[in-house]
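>> Question from a student workshop board

For tomorrow's exercise we were told to take the sequence and the ligand below, predict the bound structure, and bring the output to class. My setup keeps failing. Could a helper post the expected result so I can at least see what it should look like? The ligand is S-adenosyl-L-homocysteine.
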Amino acid sequence: MSFAASVLTLYPEMFPGALGLSLAGRALEAGTWSLEAIQIRDFATDRHRTVDDTPAGGGAGMVMRADVLAKAIDHASPPGDARPRLLMSPRGKPLTQARVRELAAGPGAVILCGRFEGVDQRVIDARGLEEVSVGDFILSGGEPAALVLLDAVVRLLPGVMGNAVSGEEESFENGLLEHPHYTRPQEFEGRPIPDVLISGNHRKIAEWRRAEAEKLTKERRPDLLADDPPR
Ligand code: SAH
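>> Workshop helper replied:
Here is what the output should look like for this input. Compare the format with yours to find the bug.
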């Protein structure tokens, strides 16, 4: 069974975009996953194909209409569709590797990309959308966020990554940032590769990597070491 992504967007031309190349692109061609980019505007009902309107209560910008979005969602995800419905949103729960793994183990995802000021709250409530953030900053639209999420998911699908082991040693997979990497040349601008890594002593190498990972995590991301780390 392959992972099926349906993306609702005002810019379907942005897909597959970067995901049409490299590992994700090859997996897309091989049918390991599928991607359907749906134009939200096709579900507008008026002559001008309007998808947004001014915010109730006043203020700057425009809001995406609940009725148009509901039609688009119902088309992409009819009753019985087991895929989670996600809304890319800076107000959402920050995306984590744990959630990425869960998504990769499931049947796919229906992903709504916001634009303008965002979407009418009523469609979020009525269609049970799960808001997902890719970080504490504001993008101009949900499309780059959807590409980020799908990239993270697709690389975990069976057969996509050449070396499956490397996936498990990655940053976040064991609650730590990853240790530093080195490769040839043996010396670069007067900086040698740490001795332990060329010692051939695999136990010592593993201990060194673990210690470096813990040090980096303590310095840069102490939140990952807390009793209740982000999940
Ligand atoms: N007015 C909103 C921001 C709207 S940005 C606010 O202050 O919360 C327009 C769209 O870009 C959003 O609807 C969302 O789909 C997307 N977006 C922006 N930043 C994002 C982020 N950090 N993570 C996920 N999606 C984001």
